[in-house]
Amino acid sequence: MKKKSFSMLLTALLTFSVVLSACSGGNNNNGTTAPAASSNEGTNTVVAEKEAEPAAPTEIKIMLPLNTSESPPDTIKNEIEKLTNTKLTYQFFPADTYEEKLNASFATGSLPQVTYLKNQTTFIQMKEAIKDGQFWEIGPYLEEFPNLNKMKPEILNNTKVEGMLYSLYIGRPLARQGMIYRKDWADKLGLSAPANTDELFEMAKAFTEQDPDGNGQKDTTGISDRNELTYGAFKTVSSWFGTPNAWAEKDGQLAPEFTFQQYIDTMDFFKKAREAGYMNQDFAATSKTDAVNMFTSGKAGLYIGGSMQDIDSLNKDLIKNFPDAVLDTHSMVAGPDGNFAQWMIPGYNNVVLFPKSAVKDEAELKKILAFFDQMMTPEISNLMYWGIEGTHYTVEDGKAKPAEDKELIEREVKGYKDSVIGEAETNGMYESYNILPGRIHAEQLLLENVKVGVADPTAALESATFTEQGVELQQIITDATYKYIYDQIDKAGFEKEVESWKSRGGSKIIEEFNASYKAQ
């Protein structure tokens, strides 16, 4: 036993001697002994080699709406995965039918770990499920992630449900809305950008009746609109008429926008324009894609609503067909009372949720939030928003200048661009370097819009009935609005539909919003 112990001790001493010899680093050319520090370097190298073993990539499935005709290739995704040590599966579905897919996936419990909604309307639809505890509350975790913690509190507050935060937001300028129009047509006809709603109507009329394309045929119209009252032309024109942004005070309490005379005036504007042929007759059944195609194929001269920043993509497609076409943007259109107004969003146009059916535990949630925290770094946000530097954009004057190949950007980058959370002020991505005069003008108008911006006073208010029935009840008003414009009902018929809205739950919504409003 002693022999064995001595043998083990001898072996240990010999081993220690060898280690000391190896750590000495050998002899230098001058025969001096290497400094003792090299012993530490050797030890650090061993530790570093152990630490260098890469962690397994975090696997994340992401569902989001697609605003292009085809899903993007993996060019950008592959780069994101390298930089974030993730394995990403993107499930893209066409924006026009996204709500159907979202609802079907929710009903079957097949939502992925990361679920983007489509807009504020789909967010309202999901609020009841959020209250039921079917999505993770993420508010308590944000302070653990330095970049996510930079998101704007005032916008986060607008997305809270019963005072708790479940979502990350995709930031947008508060008031991007306005009009994109054929300046070359206007110049030819001697028209300036419309100063008020009357001049807007006259421009639509002239673009229809005065052969602005000069081909000798009556084959153009004024407004190209789509089946969307909020993000199409209707709400933007309505704000110019002075209609409140969703709700406003009336007779001492909050009331919905469609109970105001200005809403009726807006319907009259579109009814008159449609009857005269100054807009597409079937706009209530026209998709966004078809409305865009109508404009870029030279059949219409006014594209109203949405974002004035869309001028880049509209211009790209238009000049393929008409190389000499010139577009411009405009938003300062006064109402009948001479005042300017522009409706504002609550600082976001979409949110992302994390279903408990797909994210099994807190540890998995934190790994996913860590990915989004990385997304809010300039390196990742620029990659996702602008693409690969030198391929999809270059940097000039500290701003991103998109490459000439717009189709490449549309194909490879657009799908990911629409999913970037935060905004330039919080995620550090480049602002746009613009050379198109109409886009430069648009950026100036965004600042002007905010000066006359009108917020939705109910954005951060609670109404259980609105959460549960709001989307369904809004359809009553949407249908009635279209019927009025299509001359299928008159004002009395519209007011009857408003009463139907009230009797089926609308009155309760008014009551609840007002109670929440007074409790602020």
Structure write-up:
This is ABC transporter substrate-binding protein. Pfam families: SBP_bac_1 (PF01547). Keywords: Cell membrane, Lipoprotein, Membrane, Palmitate, Signal. InterPro entries: Bact_solute-bd_prot1 (IPR050490), SBP (IPR006059). Residues 1-22 form the signal peptide. The protein has 520 residues and is α/β, with parallel strands linked by helices. The chain folds into 3 domains: 58-172 and 348-427, Periplasmic binding protein-like II (D-Maltodextrin-Binding Protein, domain 2, 3-Layer(aba) Sandwich); 176-343 and 430-455, D-Maltodextrin-Binding Protein, domain 2; 461-519. Helices cover 46% and strands 13% of the residues. The chain contains 20 helices and 15 strands. The protein has helices at 2-23, 37-51, 75-84, 98-107, 120-131, 153-158, 183-188, 197-209, 233-240, 261-276, 288-296, 311-321, 362-375, 378-386, 406-412, 414-417, 424-427, 437-451, 464-485, 491-518; strands spanning 58-66, 86-94, 114-116, 168-171, 179-182, 221-223, 247-250, 253-256, 300-304, 327-330, 342-343, 348-353, 393-396, 399-402, 453-454. The strands form 5 sheets. A 5-stranded mixed beta sheet has the order 2-1-3-12-4. α5 runs antiparallel to α19 (464-485) and α19 (464-485) runs antiparallel to α20 (491-518). The N and C termini lie far apart (83 Å). The relative contact order is 0.13. The model is unreliable at 1-49 (pLDDT under 50).
